[in-house]
User: Which sequence fits this backbone?
């Protein structure tokens, strides 16, 4: 039996309508009842992941959430924060200056709001996914001196242009993580999903062979070296399939359920 089941969230745990199917929920509850612990590692905000974790009773079973690509890591049973890596607002201001005149939107998540420098369809979708209120960028300035993550959104060509404009000197301070064609996350240089998984494994005192990873996206690849088995969704990006030990059904076909049925003896879906 695997001691830790790690799930990406969008396009893995959730359907295309961003909902948790009853079969997937039941399968993960059974796995936790059998002794496995669950980790959700995602680009989503801490507040949003906590809502999903509640549905999966992860407080009861001492699961983990790693939000903003792992910038914020928390054990749900004790509510211990294991890791919190932030970007300074001074650095955010430098990035915003670089974005001036480019056709991209910058936004910050804080206290249930999405503070955006403008409005585009991708910002609106992110606010909807995370159940956040859209607010003007200027309203954020007096709230905090640091941020977990900065979003950059726009058409693919504009986003590529912005990324190419980023000075190499910033690489020691920040990391750019692409999430699909129209979004990029900017986080602290020490943040990625693989580092978050390593922290969870250290906290649990477990080894690679104890970890089952279920993933779909290229930014999930950072976790693959630390998992004993990698199950990849049928809807996964081609680059991710190279890491797969098992190719499961899509997120619309309860791929997590199929993974647990085949790779563990902890789940029986009737």
Assistant:
């Amino acid at each position: 039996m695997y001691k830790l089941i790690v799930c990406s969230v969008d396009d893995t745990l959730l359907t295309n309508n961003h909902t948790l199917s009853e079969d997937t929920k039941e399968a993960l509850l059974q796995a936790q009842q059998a002794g496995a612990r669950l980790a959700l590692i995602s680009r989503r905000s801490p507040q949003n992941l906590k809502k999903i974790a509640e549905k999966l009773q992860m407080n009861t079973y001492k699961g983990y959430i790693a939000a903003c690509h792992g910038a914020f890591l928390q054990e749900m049973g004790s509510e211990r924060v294991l890791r919190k890596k932030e970007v300074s607002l001074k650095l955010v201001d430098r990035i915003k200056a670089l974005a001036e005149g480019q056709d991209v939107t910058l936004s910050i998540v804080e206290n249930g709001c999405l503070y955006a420098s403008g409005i585009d369809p991708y910002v609106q979708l992110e606010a909807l996914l995370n159940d956040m209120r859209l607010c003007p960028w200027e309203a954020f300035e007096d709230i905090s001196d640091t941020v977990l993550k900065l979003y950059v959104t726009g058409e693919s060509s504009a986003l590529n242009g912005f990324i190419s404009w980023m000075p190499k000197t910033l690489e020691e301070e920040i990391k750019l993580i692409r999430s699909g064609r129209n979004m990029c996350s900017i986080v602290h240089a020490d943040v990625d999903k693989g580092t978050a998984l390593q922290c969870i494994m250290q906290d649990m005192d477990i080894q690679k062979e104890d970890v089952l990873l279920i993933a779909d996206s290229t930014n999930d690849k950072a976790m693959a070296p630390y998992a004993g088995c990698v199950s990849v969704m049928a809807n996964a990006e081609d680059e991710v399939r190279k890491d797969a030990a098992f190719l499961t059904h899509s997120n619309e076909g309860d791929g997590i359920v199929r993974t647990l049925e085949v790779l563990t003896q902890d789940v029986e879906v009737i």
Notes: The chain has a mean pLDDT of 92. Residues 87-188 form a domain with the Hypothetical Protein, Haloacid Dehalogenase-like Hydrolase; Chain: A; domain 2 fold (CATH 3.30.1240.10). The first helix runs from residue 9 to 13.
